[in-house]
């Protein structure tokens, strides 16, 4: 009986151990299943991150040239904008020259009648003065009195005094004619001085325009230079419009490159953390699977 009881106790112990082993195996299986799901999820995220990092690095590599192209484009745009400023300056000089030519023409047109009037009044004054001198005898005769000595010959008798012409000018008329001639000459001279100043200014402007036109366009005709400058400005503005569009695209690319460069390190850091986590899963699960198989 003691032997049977011992065998029975031994069987019970074996059963308990088997039951415990079954429970442990079930627990391990559940852990392995859960961990496997976590590992799969971890792998999915890592794959997605790796793909995103690869795509980001590839995109960043393609965008790296944006900075160089942007710098070159800016330099070219600045060069063209400076060319426009030069051409605009030339056109402004040509426009000023045209205005100065018109101003000179106006002054000359104003001067001619003033000069004619001054010359006419001077001639009138000279003629009146000449006539006045010719009528001096008659003018003196007007002041002769019988018994009073003549200031010319000294005679006190004046039987036949010289007659005064009805057209003989008076001293007041001579003075008035002289003053009118002097005033007209003054006005004419002032206008002539303005003409001379305008001619000097025009010559300086013309010299400047010709020099600039030759340097900028190789053209000696200010009118043609004005037209050529306008045509070139229109062409440059067309090119600049295209460049500004490209410039905007490159600025966006530059901004995008900066965004990617800022995001990639964080993504790589996350990928490294997930990779370490995956190693921990393997470190835990593999021994458990081995134990379970045993």
Give a description of the structure.
The protein has 294 residues and is mainly alpha-helical. The protein has helices at 2-63, 65-134, 136-141, 171-217, 222-293. Helix 1 (2-63) packs antiparallel against helix 5, helix 2 packs antiparallel against helix 4 (171-217) and helix 2 (65-134) packs antiparallel against helix 5. The chain is rod-shaped. The chain starts with a helix and ends with a helix. Mean pLDDT is 82; it is low at 288-294.
User: What portion of residues belong to β-strands?
Assistant: under 5%
N- and C-termini, Cα separation = 36 Å
Largest sheet: none
**Which stretches are poorly predicted, pLDDT < 50 over at least 5 residues?**
288-294
What does the overall shape look like?
A: rod-shaped
**Rg, Cα atoms, Å:** 58 Å
Q: List how many beta strands DSSP finds.
A: 0
Count of helical stretches: 5
| Order of SSEs | HHHHH
Structural class: mainly alpha
Please state the average pLDDT score.
82
Helix content: over 70%
């Amino acid at each position: 009986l003691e032997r049977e009881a011992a065998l029975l106790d031994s069987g019970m112990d074996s059963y308990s151990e088997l039951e415990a082993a079954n429970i442990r195996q079930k627990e391990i299986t559940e852990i392995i299943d859960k961990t496997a799901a976590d590992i799969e999820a971890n792998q999915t995220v890592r794959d997605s991150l790796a793909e995103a990092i690869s795509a980001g690095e590839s995109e960043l590599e393609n965008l790296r040239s944006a900075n160089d192209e942007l710098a070159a484009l800016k330099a070219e745009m600045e060069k063209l904008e400076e060319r426009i400023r030069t051409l605009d300056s030339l056109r402004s000089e040509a426009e000023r020259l045209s205005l100065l030519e018109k101003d000179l023409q106006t002054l000359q047109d104003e001067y001619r009648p003033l000069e004619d009037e001054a010359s006419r009044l001077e001639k009138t004054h000279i003629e009146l003065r000449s006539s006045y001198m010719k009528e001096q005898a008659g003018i003196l005769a007007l002041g002769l009195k019988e018994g009073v000595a003549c200031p010319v010959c000294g005679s006190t008798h004046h039987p036949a005094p010289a007659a005064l012409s009805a057209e003989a000018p008076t001293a007041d008329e001579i003075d008035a004619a002289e003053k009118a001639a002097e005033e007209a000459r003054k006005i004419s001279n002032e206008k002539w001085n303005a003409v001379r100043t305008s001619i000097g200014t025009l010559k300086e402007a013309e010299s400047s325009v010709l020099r600039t036109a030759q340097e900028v366009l190789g053209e000696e005709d200010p009118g043609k230079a004005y037209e050529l400058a306008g045509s070139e400005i229109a062409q440059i503005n067309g090119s600049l419009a295209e460049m500004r569009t490209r410039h905007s695209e490159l600025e966006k690319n530059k901004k995008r490159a900066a965004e990617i460069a800022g995001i990639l390190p964080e993504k790589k850091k996350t990928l490294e953390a997930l990779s370490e986590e995956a190693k921990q899963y393997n470190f835990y699960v593999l021994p458990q699977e081995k134990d379970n198989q045993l």
